[in-house]
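User: I need a structural model of Branched-chain amino acid ABC transporter permease from Natrinema pallidum for a docking pre-check later this week. Nothing fancy, just the predicted structure tokens so I can convert them on my end. Input:
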Amino acid sequence: MISTILLLGTVCSTVTGRLGRVAGTLRRQVLWPIGRTLERLLAPIDRVLGPVADGYNRSLGPYFGEMSGLQFGVIAVSVAGLLTAGTWAPMVGPLLGGGLLRTLALASIWAIFAMSWDIQSGYTGYISFGHSALSGAAGYTTALLIVHVDPTLSIWITGSVSVLAALVVGLLIALPTLRLEGPYFSLITFVAVLLFYRLTTAFSSLGGIPGFGQPDVFTWDPMVRYYYMAIPMLLIALALTFMARSNLGMILIAIRENEPAVSAAGLNPTKFKLWSFVLSSVPMGIGGVLLVGFTGNVDPSTFVVVDNSIEMIAIAVIGGMSSILGPLGGAFLFEVLNHQVLHGYSTPVRYLFLWLIVLFVLVFARDGLFRAIWHRLGAVRGESE
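Assistant: Understood. Predicted structure tokens for Branched-chain amino acid ABC transporter permease:
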């Protein structure tokens, strides 16, 4: 038995080493030459956009991060594309199997989830498997208020109470766990979401709340529904980017890199990790409310199952952890691949392909696809000057 385990360990070590060497060769011989060629082609565009980017850097750069001309152009085009998707998505959608606006709306919700997870786990290094419990708490609170209290309640009331519920659940998870480190913290969050899942399945009144809605908010109009999801997502991305660039964000990164040094500097890491949970819980609650509006019903498999937490992590890995905008891009890539490009395949086949992409990113681009692209765009400016 021991010899078998040792043999498996040797095989795994050999395979990992070979994958690492293949990844290094691929980067040196294929990706880097392609990158240098693209940089030469994009340098003129960077020079044209440079003055606009410099104006942004002087005014808003200290709050949201400085950008090169190309980076500014990519952000501007992306935001414009998201805001005008209601006009171009219906035309492009049939080429991708239809339903593109629905996919973009769903991607907006998952972008909120992934960014919320990232501000807590990506920045502090404390990996949580329990974030689906936060969105589930918000979703169930909204549904219960509408079904059992008053179906005419304003979204501002139901939404506010639901976000508060997500915050309370987040604090209930955070307070007993933040003094733990390493796998113990992750295990506690994993158990927490399993407990929440069992709670929803143990009581028939929580097992599923189908077929409710509010005409002024929960709409089945694809275009209106998309903007209900996309605009809050953009605002949350803006707010989380601001917080990540603030002193709080820098301290969270310092906790990830060297927590004892943060303590030696006279700061309380537990307090700041608690703040990271607060920053994460509020947008998770908003995302849970939006998911209720998107689906029109609540059930454990949609809101609470631990697979949702793992999918948030996968999206953040694809985009690039501890970057806010990386998980946002990862969410749109993940959902477009899942529901548009691979829509003709069964769910197991689609997720097999998607998890192979996650594995590819972990081996060949550990900083994430979008984060790597972002840094390469920023490097163009230095070579063009």
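Before docking, keep this in mind: Residues 1-9, 213-217 have pLDDT under 50 and may be disordered.
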